[in-house]
Every structure is written in structure tokens, then in C-alpha cells.
């Protein structure tokens, strides 16, 4: 009897062309898996799209002197053409700027909010002292507090791979004008993962078809 298989592929940022590392990371492996599942008779839906929100988009748009939408339109076309040229078998390759995507995300967020799973918390955010502009993650660079790499970003260090917060960086500076940012209290919304940990843990415990390393990795995330 055939099964239904969803291949949910990582969404590349529409902030530039994809290179061979991206293709080998998210492109080819997911395509090989989906083709195999189709070959053995399963009903496969392979989906992805371009991520057109966030600081990677706004940083690159400022660098190229265009709006974020213009940048997303430009590189969505480049990425789609490249993936089609490689013959990757997506059933749906969409964008995070479609009306449908907006509607689905809003529905999910409001559902979580109404059920108490989204909670406001105060964190330290970076602000430009000269302009008052908010400087989220990739607008800040500095030295990684873990490995000492001097070009770490405010969201992660590409040298050691650890996720970071702008306030963690040693000698942080703004990528816009090189000034030292001021850190102030800001309010953000967070998913209350601890409230869901029990249910998620039980669900993971029933995953007899998962590879042991993937299952252990997922369980460790809950334990942390």
C-alpha cells in the first residue's frame, strides 16, 4: 500500500544566487529522496520556496540600492531558474510574500496566541545611537565570544556555527556606519516551547521510523 510523503525542503533566502553548497545541502538530497519515494509508488509532495523576509533581505537590499520587494523579485527569479535548470522536481515552489502565505502565517500565529502559546518577553535589542534605528541581528558584527572569530554576525558565528545574540558579541559594531550600538530593552513575542515540551516529547517517543541520530537530536532540543 502506498504512503503519502511530504518533503518539506529548507527555504533559501532571496538575497542572492544560490551556490553549489546550497544545492548540495538542500537541493539535490531532497530531490533524490522524493524521486525514490515516487519510484516505489508513494504519493509525494515536495515543497519549498524563497524566504523573502528578515534581515538578510533588508541588508542586501540596502547594499544594492533597492527596496526589499525589488530585491526579492530579482533573486526569486534567479533561484527558480537555477533550480529548474538543475531539474529538481518540486511540486510547489512558492514565496513568503504571497497572500496565501500571509493568511496561513496569520492564522497559525493567532491560533497560538489565543491558546496562550505565544508569550511576550523583554530582551536586549541593539539601537543606533545616532539615528535611533533598530539594528536586528545581521546589522551587527563583532567578535564571537566562543571561538574569537572577529567577523561574527549578530545571529550566528559562521566560523564555529554557534547561534548568537547581538548582545553576546565582543566589540559589536553596526554594519551600516561602524558605530557601537546601544542596547535597550525591547519586547518580542516567543513561542512557549516549554509548555509544549511534554506533548512533543510523547510524540517523538512514538517515532519508531526515524533514524536514531535524528531522533536523539530532536529530543536533546527539548531537553535544553
TrEMBL record:
Gene3D superfamilies: HUPs, Methionyl-tRNA synthetase, Zn-domain. One of its GO terms (biological process) is methionyl-tRNA aminoacylation. Its main location: cytoplasm. The lineage of its organism: Bacteria, Bacillati, Actinomycetota, Actinomycetes, Propionibacteriales. The keyword Phosphoprotein does not apply. Keywords: Aminoacyl-tRNA synthetase, ATP-binding, Cytoplasm, Ligase, Nucleotide-binding, Protein biosynthesis. Belongs to the class-I aminoacyl-tRNA synthetase family. MetG type 1 subfamily. This is methionine--tRNA ligase. PANTHER family: METHIONINE--TRNA LIGASE (PTHR45765), METHIONINE--TRNA LIGASE, CYTOPLASMIC (PTHR45765:SF1). GO terms for molecular function: ATP binding; methionine-tRNA ligase activity. It catalyses: tRNA(Met) + L-methionine + ATP = L-methionyl-tRNA(Met) + AMP + diphosphate. The keyword Cytoplasm applies. InterPro entries: Met-tRNA_ligase_1 (IPR023458), Methionyl/Leucyl_tRNA_Synth (IPR015413), MetRS_core (IPR033911), MetRS_Zn (IPR029038), Rossmann-like_a/b/a_fold (IPR014729). It is found in: Cytoplasm. One of its GO terms (cellular component) is cytosol. Its EC number is 6.1.1.10. It comes from the Bacteria. Residues 6-223 form the Methionyl/Leucyl tRNA synthetase domain. Pfam families: tRNA-synt_1g.
Amino acid at each position: 500500500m502506498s504512503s503519502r510523503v511530504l518533503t518539506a525542503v529548507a527555504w533559501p533566502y532571496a538575497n542572492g544566487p544560490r551556490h553549489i553548497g546550497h544545492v548540495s545541502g538542500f537541493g539535490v538530497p531532497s530531490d533524490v529522496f522524493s524521486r525514490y519515494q515516487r519510484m516505489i509508488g508513494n504519493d509525494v509532495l515536495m515543497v519549498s520556496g524563497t524566504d523573502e523576509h528578515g534581515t538578510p533581505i533588508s541588508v542586501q537590499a540596502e547594499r544594492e540600492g533597492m527596496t526589499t520587494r525589488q530585491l526579492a523579485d530579482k533573486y526569486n527569479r534567479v533561484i527558480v531558474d537555477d533550480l529548474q535548470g538543475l531539474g529538481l522536481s518540486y511540486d510547489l515552489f512558492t514565496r513568503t510574500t504571497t497572500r496565501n502565505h500571509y493568511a496561513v502565517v496569520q492564522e497559525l500565529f493567532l491560533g497560538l496566541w489565543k491558546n496562550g502559546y505565544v508569550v511576550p518577553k523583554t530582551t536586549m535589542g541593539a539601537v543606533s545611537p545616532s539615528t535611533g534605528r533598530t539594528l536586528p541581528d545581521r546589522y551587527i558584527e563583532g567578535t564571537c565570544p566562543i571561538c574569537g572569530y572577529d567577523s561574527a554576525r549578530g545571529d550566528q558565528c559562521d566560523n564555529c556555527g554557534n547561534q548568537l545574540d547581538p548582545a553576546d558579541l565582543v566589540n559589536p559594531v553596526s554594519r551600516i556606519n561602524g558605530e557601537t550600538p546601544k542596547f535597550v530593552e525591547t519586547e518580542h513575542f516567543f513561542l512557549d516551547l516549554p509548555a509544549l515540551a511534554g506533548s512533543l516529547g510523547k510524540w517523538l517517543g512514538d517515532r519508531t521510523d526515524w533514524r536514531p541520530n535524528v531522533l536523539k537530536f530532536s529530543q536533546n532540543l527539548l531537553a535544553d
